[in-house]
Design a protein that fits this description.
- The structure holds two protein chains of two kinds.
- A six-stranded mixed sheet of chain A has the order 5-6-7-3-8-9, sandwiched between helices. In chain A, strands 2-1-4 form a three-stranded antiparallel sheet, covered by helices on one side.
- Chain A is α/β, with parallel strands linked by helices.
- Chain A is 36% helix and 23% strand.
- In chain A, helix 4 packs across helix 5.
- Chain B has a single domain, classed as ABC transporter involved in vitamin B12 uptake, BtuC (Orthogonal Bundle).
- Chain B is built from twelve helices and no strands.
- In chain B, helix 1 packs across helix 10, helix 2 packs antiparallel against helix 10 and helix 11 packs across helix 12.
- Classes of the chains: A alpha/beta, B mainly alpha.
- Chains A and B meet through strand 5 and helix 10 of A and helix 7, helix 8, helix 9 and helix 11 of B.
Amino acid sequence: MGHLEDHRILPQEVKVALSAQSLSVKYGKTVALEDVGFDIPRGAYCAVVGPNGVGKSTLFKCALGLIKPAHGSIAVLGGSYLPKVHRVAYIPQQSEVDWDFPATVFDAVRMGIENIPPVWSSARKALNEQVLNYLDRVGLKHLSQRPLKNLSGGQQQRVFFARALAQRADLYLLDEPFSGVDAKTEEDLICLLREICSLGKTVVAIHHNIQTVPNVFSHVLLLNGTVVACGAVADVWTAENLRTTFSPREKRRVVLDEFEREEKEGLSHAL
Amino acid sequence: MPFDLLSDPVVLRVCLTAFVIGTLAGLSGVFVVLQKQSLLGDVIAHSTLPGICLAWWTTHRSSNAVLTTGAFIAGVSAYVFLRLLSSRLKVKPDAALSATLSIFFGFGILLLSHVQRLPNAGAAGLEGFIFGNLATVMHSDLLVSVVLLGAFVVFVTVYWRRLTIGLFDPSLAWTRFGSLRDAQIGLGVFVIAIIGCGLRTMGALLITSILVAPVVAARVWNRGFLALLILSGALGGLSCFLGSLWSAASRGVPPGPASTLVALAFVLISLGVRKWRESTGKFSSSRV
């Protein structure tokens, strides 16, 4: 596995994992994000916190290039997203995925692997070992042949994490990774992410449980249509900032949820 | 015995054609159903009617090539219309499907009744396109459907990862492959072509049941996507084969309804087995 890793090592010069400059995003006439600017340093374990419908998911979709910004730019690992596709692992909300899809846990994790050798080559066996390894790291090795539809919410999230590990990314974008997940799973996954960060990789997670932020994350991005604060938890996690983040803004924010849902439906019914 | 009929080369040819078309429908149906677009086939098949009528009206010829071309053009227009409704005008998917179906089919019925009242109307043959008609199946039909099957297998193999990942998690497909437009448009064109190709044998009204029923039956039996694909194709092929044989043996039973009934039998058997397995507690259930 070592020789495969080599050409993928992210150059040391890249110090910023995710950054935005005067970024604005609009859905029709509704402004989702306005003049957003921040830098999330490499190796950060960063929470994105803000009320519903302030464009947290929009921010991720923008980073992935799924949505074009109206103004400004967003940089992924020091550049535009597209050449860096293989360095980014995105875990969507669980509801965005078809869990009725006929596949086993093993199949789902294998989807994360970039190049799959043909069935007849000897590399195939090594690949299967690798997939089982990733499953072992999230504690699902014993369920590798279980159909996806027979998993609990916590197990589904573990599958997502194993798949993200298989992508061997440098930046992990997680959309509410701990919602609908049991306490034990949450604890395990938090440890796993911490381990990932210690390897110089970056985790950015949309997070709703503000009680746990200071204990879990190293950095935080407070979002309320625009950036309230961004930085190390020790510096920006203040009552004042939180109050600003969660104070009600104009009515348009509420409408936004509806827009995002429609966008999503549009995507899944694209055929 | 109806199987004795197979020694007749004409019946054999007809049944083989039906088998290939059924296999195609079963295979492509997997993608349609998993995309939660089960009604798509229905809409496209019904929407071919105005194309068939117009093709006959303008040329006054009921040859396969002319009518199938008309059907194909109408199917593509319906598909484009559907996509415009849902992507540009933001009409909800179910409303867009039902609007497309009623507009095109309504227009088709209007044309059909007009065409049938024309003097010296040889338009009677058009009915074969609605319920299916085995008498007109020719060597070229078998050839075309075999070529289409080969092309579809190549298409699915080439786009295998895009299609499977895209069905499970569109966002992963996007981060891995970028836009899925090629694969989706390719799939749409294949579905239209498969429906167009099956119209003559199975009929516009019931070709879509062969698109959906084998998938529903096959989903009960297995866990992997490849296995589902193979089983669904096989069940689709078998349904149409047996249905055509039944139709050939009985004189008067059109092949579309006959094949649909066979497919329905597969569905009922599968669901029955699932119910039985659930009651013995071996597997947990899932929606089909």
